[in-house]
Amino acid sequence: MNFKFSERISTLQPSAIREILKVTQDPTVISFAAGNPAPESFPAAEMASIAAEIFANNAASALQYGVTEGYGPLKELTAKRMKEKYNIGRTFDDIIITSGGQQAIEMLTKALVNEGDVILCEMPSFIGALNAFRSYNAKLIGIPMDHDGMDMEVLERTLQTTQNVKFIYTIPTFQNPSGHVMSLERRKKLLELAQKYNVLILEDSPYFELRFAGEYVPPIKSMDETGCVLFSGSYSKILAPGIRIGFAIAPKELISKLTVAKQVSDVHTNLFFQMIAAEYLKRYDLDAHIAKICDLYRTRAELMCNRIDEKFGGKVQYVRPTGGLFLWCSLPEGYDSMDFCRKTGEKKVVAVPGSSFSIDEREITPSFRMNYSLPSEEQICKGIDLMAEVLHDYVK
Amino acid sequence: MNFKFSERISTLQPSAIREILKVTQDPTVISFAAGNPAPESFPAAEMASIAAEIFANNAASALQYGVTEGYGPLKELTAKRMKEKYNIGRTFDDIIITSGGQQAIEMLTKALVNEGDVILCEMPSFIGALNAFRSYNAKLIGIPMDHDGMDMEVLERTLQTTQNVKFIYTIPTFQNPSGHVMSLERRKKLLELAQKYNVLILEDSPYFELRFAGEYVPPIKSMDETGCVLFSGSYSKILAPGIRIGFAIAPKELISKLTVAKQVSDVHTNLFFQMIAAEYLKRYDLDAHIAKICDLYRTRAELMCNRIDEKFGGKVQYVRPTGGLFLWCSLPEGYDSMDFCRKTGEKKVVAVPGSSFSIDEREITPSFRMNYSLPSEEQICKGIDLMAEVLHDYVK
What we know:
Two copies of one chain form a homodimer. Chain A is α/β, with parallel strands linked by helices. Chain A is built from 13 helices and 13 strands.
């Protein structure tokens, strides 16, 4: 039969990036294109022991339907940790467990955005969020950023002149793809603008605990006294992504709408792993575990940067990351990173061209994203060496 | 701040049923209101042994990000079983793993329905589906049904006279809430109408393997030679619901749009339990396991029916179920089941009033839904006895 898809979905195109990423299925390819955490960092032994106990003592509950809002103890332990450690959450807030951080983004868009409404995003930004916004026919307006985050003057001008802005999307800490950290001053300014223009902030923070250098900058939500921030957190990068567990902390009124949206979407998140995560939080020292992950990523990030300094001959610009998973690299002005990444792909080493993170994916950009959390030290060295060969051929 | 929710979500009201179901949190309440399978039916020991092996040998993959379409072996084993056992799936079809059957319903609506487009539903129908449709501002038109399923004459007249019908939603086998099984003749007619009017059928079949009496009626999808049926299946009622694993089989073009929708929603379904389910299918005899579940439900359904016959004095009409989880009961014409269920709730026994399954939830209906899969034999007897007391007081 002839399918007539909805307007919201028919506008969604498979990403150009897919072509390039296809080669990563070849095991001989070195991939700097992923957003995956290091599998060595998964606390598999601890989870295995908890799982065995749940199967032995509590299987009937763990395998049965659960409530949409999430497993009670996981909600409580998460909210408590976020409050005590980061001052996130006030009495007007509530928490919901999500099936990964991505789900909070999708559900918030569903709950707030009518077709044609506006979402303001950092430029460049996370492709998964941009596609979620597109999947509701939102109009995306990009706000330029520098190393300190979004340009607040452009943001205010945009808020002044744009109707139906539903929220401002930001990854303030170790942004994807740029790795940038929004300065404290700009965080305060952003909060002030959100209040002034009555626009919600979606603070997407899957990486914020992965700091391995520099100084802590408090989450925007920790300063939110009026309920204009939704904080989306995730266990994907600090426990494991395959379990699909995240959480959102936001004003009760908003969480109750997200609960309705989640109820009709997946009813609830896998209950067994919600119980594993809760037990992990009870029994083990998550902070110590995160510190170990940070050590690992510091080593890999430094190795990648040092190797680039050594091999790229200054032809690529980047800023040393202080946390997160990504290194944002730029070819000299005028070069097309899509073309460059296609060429490195032919040499079996892959990065993600910057256009994948653009609001207009046809945009030509000299920047590309490199991931250092997944590849081994050996792969990092070999991959940078291969890229260097392509680079010196490409940029004369 | 002031939240302005989207039109699609602000129309979604918390269900009236919630008030009544609140009392089910009291452990002294006997609940016939659930849609839960019996926890005794979960293959916990088998899953525990598989889980231990995955943790020991394959944790790095099982806890890492997976692909949106689903874990390869689970897709293959599910497609193979559906094809060999039920003749579901043709060369033009593909399969996607979903986070429970509910997710297929939500994603299909997202992919096909513009605001104001029409979905045709059985009347009454599954509340989770109706709310998913409402969450995209679909216009719902109910088609009356009898014990043989939807009224095909009314359906054809509706198709003739209605613009922008995007799909027909049916639970043909052991329908929720009515327990009805659509006859083979009507299934063929439905397929013919779908082809004639170029309208998709969403065949939602979470219960179809739970037959404990009567004769097998083939799924609509097994007769679909032109690709006008999406078959939504689930492991919730034959393995366990807390793991949130279902699947959809439909033409490739449609599955590829569902994949885009899933990518932006939860990226993929919990990978660890997808691997457990795949290993279960490889190692154990799922059909034998289902046969045991059917034995259990036959016993409970018969007990409930016999006790009703004994105690209700003919004041409630019902048809003996041949499978599934539900018994659909009706008070004499003119009585309001909402009022009746409120009264039984006060006596600590709970059923779901029929209005919860209506397109217009304010509708007054004499029918209510009883679940026999979750309560124990003792609870069934005691609960029916308590209901009988209320009934004889209520219907003179």
